Amino acid sequence: MTELRLTGKSDDGSHLSLVDNQGGEFSLRISDTLRATVNQQRLTSVPSVDATETMSVKEIQRRLRAGESMEQVAREGHLTLEKVERFSGPILQEREYILDRARELVMRKDVHRIEMTFSDVVIAKLAPRGVDIDQISWNTWRLLDGTWHIELSYPNRDGNGVATWNFDLARRALDASDANGAWLIDEDVPAQPVSSGIIHSEPTHPSRIAEILETLPVEAPVEKIETPRLAVIRETPTSADSQDGITARAKVPSWDEIMFGHKTQEEPEEN
Predict the structure, then answer these.
(1) DSSP of 171-227, one letter per residue?
(2) For the purposes of burial, counting CB atoms within 10 Å of the CB of 184, is it exposed (0-12), middle (13-18) or buried (19 or more)?
(3) Which of 139, 157, 201, 257 could form a cystine bridge with 253, CB 3.0-4.6 A?
């Protein structure tokens, strides 16, 4: 292998000037591929030949279909960027096809009974608010369950807004997956499950109290016995009662009479 040394750049800055040990001069075009290779964080992982490549064409296309960039696939697959680009064409066409099918999906009809597609609904929401429609961008990639993630980026007063949906091509169904997506198509905000995302190993940790309660046996409810309430009753009528013709009051029942329902034996009177 002949070693070349960098001696400078061309006057227009488009080529590098190189020289070998025998004084032979060479010129190398500064392409986008060269820039991407030099700027990679792991330069040593990008080989100059295909002998050490470890990623198959099928895996390259699977990753591109899932939304990874060509640079990321090249870096992680120990590939040249040119090879990734070589197999990216069909996948990029497929993703654009999915976007077209989603944007042409009929969502509803306007006041004049004219059908409005998904794209029409989004533009009708953004345009009156001063959003430059030419500045919006669409992207999509396939999820693990086979549906497609649709992402729309649009300029707003905070810089850039993002709205997302899930698109099922087989069912021709489109569902918002975030609040912005729901707002753009006038749907309810999708419910988001609340989860701490942390699982503590200690079984007694407060975050795992629900698991502890599920393992406890369920006890039958205990019937509550209500304590009888005693009424205060006088045996001797008051003066006011005598004026009303009351000559006697009911006797206060004993505790045994209340609890067991029978009268206690009266104690003999003392002589």
Answers:
(1) TTEEEE-SHHHHHHTT-PPPP---------S-TTSGGGHHHHHHHSPPPPPPPPPPP
(2) buried
(3) 257
Residue 28, φ and ψ in degrees, nearest 5: -125, 125
Question: What's the pLDDT score for residue 49?
Answer: 44
How many helices (H) and strands (E) are present in the chain, helices listed first? 10, 9
Catalogue the E-assigned strands of the chain. 5-9, 15-19, 25-29, 106-109, 115-117, 137-142, 148-154, 161-168, 173-176
**Phi, psi (deg, nearest 5) at residue 43:** -60, -35
Res. 10 pLDDT band, cuts 50 70 90: confident
pLDDT, one tens digit per residue, over 100-126 is 999 999 998 877 788 999 999 999 999
Q: Is 108 helix (H, G, I), strand (E, B) or coil?
A: strand
Coil, strand or helix at 143: coil
Q: How far apart are CA 150 and CA 68, in angstroms?
A: 15
Whether the Cβ atoms of residue 91 and residue 85 lie closer than 8 Å to each other: no
Q: How far is residue 7's CA from residue 93's CA, in Å, rounded to a whole number?
A: 42
| Residue 216 structure tokens | 């406890």
